[in-house]
Please model this.
Amino acid sequence: MDISFSRSGTSTERSNGIGKSFKISQIIEPVAIINKKKTEVATTAPLQPEAPQQAPTQAVGPSEAEAKAYIYQHESGNDPYAVNPTSGACGLGQSLPCEKMGCELGDYACQDTWATNYMLDKYGSWFAAMIFHQNNNYW
Model:
């Protein structure tokens, strides 16, 4: 009895030589052809798997730098001199009270360090701080 394999569409079709065939969905390694008189091994190249389907494109969230910029923009307009006239919060991250950050108004580097430490302590990442801000309108 001869056994043969052929590729059909996205699967492999197998025929047992007596009129019955069925599909095999995995890659076929070298095929053994069995004959009543002798056994031969055909070393055909394995069938190539189909290229995996590309996953749907998913929106990628903002980077940490973008999330940080979002906080600064929404809190102070990215202005190290900003002071909230109602609450007295000040600086890039709107420290309340203003003295808590220990920086002079206008000292961008000092305020940035303070805000980064505040973010790490309270949220763990700028992205998490941004999500909190989007949900609560403060951070």
